[in-house]
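Why predict the complex rather than its parts? Because the way molecules touch one another can change local conformation, and only a joint prediction can capture that. The input here totals 691 residues.
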Amino acid sequence: MSSQPTNVACGKPTNVVIAGLGGQGVIKASDILADVAFSAGLDVKKSELHGMSQRGGSVSSDVRFGERVFSPMVPEGEADFLVVIAPDQVPVNTWMMGQGGVLIDASLIDESSLPNKKSINVALLGMLSRHLPFPIEAWNDAIGRNLPEKLQEVNLRAFSIGRANGQGVEREG
Amino acid sequence: MAAYDCGVRLGTGYPGTPSTEILETFEALGGRAQWSPNEKVALEVAIGVAFAGARAIVTMKHVGLNVAADPLFTVASTRLDGALVVVSADDPGMASSQNEQDNRRYALAAGVAMLEPSDSQEAYEFTVRAIEISERWQVPVLLRMTTRVCHSKSVVRRGTVAIPPPRAAHFEHDLPSRVMIPAYARPAHPRLRKKLAEMAAWNDEAGPNQLIPGSTKLGIITSGAAFLHVREVAPEASVLKIGMTYPLPAERMRAFAASVERCIVIEEGDPYLVEGARAACIAVEDKPEIYRFGELTSARVRRILDKDASPEPKRVAGKMPAFCPGCPHRSVYTALKNLDCIVSGDIGCYSLGALPPFEAMDTMVCMGASIGIGLGLRLSLPPEAAKRVVSVIGDSTFVHSGITGLVEMIYNPPESGHVVVILDNGTTAMTGLQEHPGTGRTLAHAKTGKVVFEELARTLGIQNVYVIDPTAEPEKFQQTIQDCLDRPELSVVISRHNCLLANRWIREYERCNEQPTD
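Output of the joint prediction:
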């Protein structure tokens, strides 16, 4: 009775988990993603744990969007997309990913191809963007709104390098 | 945002995850907000604002309310002229706290009305409702948040609730309502109970509670973030979401429970709603004890509803935090470890000294406890061990509740003396680089009065006071600690080096504050 699949009546939300270590831009990437989804007129919820993350600990942020979203947390094993900025954080987070979920992690991008290694978070969003129905202008606008002016150029380039790079790896079913 | 839209006169608080961002946002919007040395002082300042007919909001993390509990319990019986909203941010799952206390118990114990928002939109609307309730009954209102309400972002629409205009600040003499001597406090208690009975009746009739009709087979009573998980996993169920969880809308709960075959309470943390329902002789099912620990999630709510007793999937542990490379605390713990000290620790970044590779902090209980516990160890251990005890406390924590510890040390000094190390990194680092009275800058980083630790320690009568940069002179730092330990005297060693994360900002603030203003 209560274990029916979620949100059948109101369209299933898209679940994205962005993970990494403190200082890598996990929260910034999730801010940009939430902004893009919000601009598309969707209901968006975002939630994160970052108590001690500034000291280099694990940090992860859940972003959910759709017609109607209830819980701000991605249910365990139901992430459609898992974006991991620190390669060693992949094993820590794969349990969040569902069957058929897509893993997009930093090992898929050649860091030296980026204008600045620090924009790897935005480059991974570029890869994620291939899967999502948002126009590229919306992504560029959101990057513009969420980053200070002097970092925008570097991050817009990182985004397009990521977008051209590939789509990530689908989890075997 | 709601606080700003409501014309809140002053926001006060002490930083603590997950409550810190509220005052920072209020200030960024143009409100007047300030950090207090600790939560008790923050609440007292806010009470003053509410006695002056204006609106006040005070924010703290859940354990902060322990510090502020003394004024909270008594202000409940007084008569406010303005509004007083106390925001308590609980941390189920302890993402960054020392315990998992459920602060809904405080509302019950103190007789303070309580609202529990479940998302960002409700955080906005319930702040407005809290102000209305506070002004209508002239009492404080507790706004109880949790990590997943605080550290989540969802769409907020302004203007969804009417906001009563604030009144101008003024003062009316009303001694019997505000001077809580026994003669005035005795009639104040039944007056409070009468107000609470009125509020309970109002809550039944018109409180911010939500009934979602659904199947008569399954009814769920819930509150806060748990409501969202419930809606996600059981869209077919009837749901009574309680927005005002003290005093409880008992008659609504009774009618709801009677309308469904299975009535279960899904709540995060303690069985607070369950006990409230059962005390009112309403039969409800509760969650198994295991779900009292940690946060609820959609998956856990599904397991509760399905009575699924199979073991929960184990999470892979994430990476533990560690001191930043070059952090001044590293040299301090290196020295304390070299000297084989017994370290009575405290709360802040330097709590990481308990983790590998140092494992050099032996105790941590609550804010400011390092000094008192260190003194207790000195007073009871055999002399050889007693003389190795050191109390370690951060700059913001020292201002919060370490100063009284220092007074205790002067008043009741152990025979072996004692050594207190104040780790002054020029900021409240752990919670995200907030200012405090020792930095000499306000919440908005403007120049203000400054508490100088070495002067304070000398004024109190501490015999040996040193200020050393442990990064620049690690050997001198260790030698100084060694010398202090060898003397049966009272010593305060201030380890002063700016937090590396904060240093750039601190220099920027100092530069701005030096420029002449127009």
